[in-house]
Please model this.
Amino acid sequence: MQSSSAEFTHQTVLRDEVVEFVRTGKGSTVIDATLGLGGHSEAILEATDLDVVGIDQDAAAIEIAKERLAKFGGRFTVVNANFSEIGEAVSAGNIAAIIADLGVSSMQLDDAARGFSFRASAPLDMRMNKSAGRTAAELLETSTEAEIADILYFYGEERRSRKIARWISERNAAGEPLRTTEELANLVERAIGKKPSDKIHPATRTFQAIRIAVNRELDVLKDFIPAAIEKLDPEGVLAIISFHSLEDRIVKQAFQRLSGKCSCPPRLPQCMCGAVKKIEVLTKKPILPGEDEQEQNPRSRSAKLRVAKRLI
Ligand SMILES: C[S@@+](CC[C@H](N)C(=O)[O-])C[C@H]1O[C@@H](n2cnc3c(N)ncnc32)[C@H](O)[C@@H]1O
Model:
């Protein structure tokens, strides 16, 4: 249950539930599109005869998972890529299941140097793939006040987005752009204050929003879902665990579209959107972790698992 390397751990969420769905797919190989420290991959390799291809955009996670799963020999292989490129990046066919456990791992959060956390001071980076894209510091320095406010509002559901954005822009205008997680956390705390009744740090939503923007998490998820369905063999299953409402909505809506739900305006006399029933949704409601898991692993509390089966 507990992933491990010398230094880092990550508790795998909804592990048994994911394995049970994976077993129902027809094919010889599973793609773990968010390998992380390899917790789900290990469970599948132990419980089934299937091979596993692990994808991760984080080279550090891949190294740890490779070491952990070396005991499975040629049954386990890795690809260092973004899961939105699943079609081109994975050459294996006969795919029984594809799983995605979205977001960052505890390893990434706990490694202060990665800049994901406001609990330690580090360069403001937040990239899951350290060799591509803009860092959080670069994003904040090159975005307008309105763009920053939109990021905080839409990706962090931060009600005081405009005030925080104004303070960040004022730093940019003064030639003192934010460089560290500590500077950002302090700025947010000073901008919006902290009440004794607050259950979370005032910068929590801001950090989540900036992380989503830096890694384009919602855009790549939108690209991933139809590409993953194409990659599956008929009767293969796609299982996605999301951790916040924005992700879950994207999964739910993509599944509705792929299950043939017409998206035409009601006034049209006939369907023009070309909706085709490609999948059957196996989870009418998302599956949530049981009480025991939620108690033992607080991070699992926001997890939602949705699963679909490819039909044609
Ligand atoms: C929550 S962790 C996965 C943990 C894993 N299931 C386990 O139990 O050990 C998510 C992982 O997915 C990776 N990831 C997130 N988005 C990705 C994307 N778009 N493409 C490739 N990897 C991604 C992250 O780098 C991270 O290592």
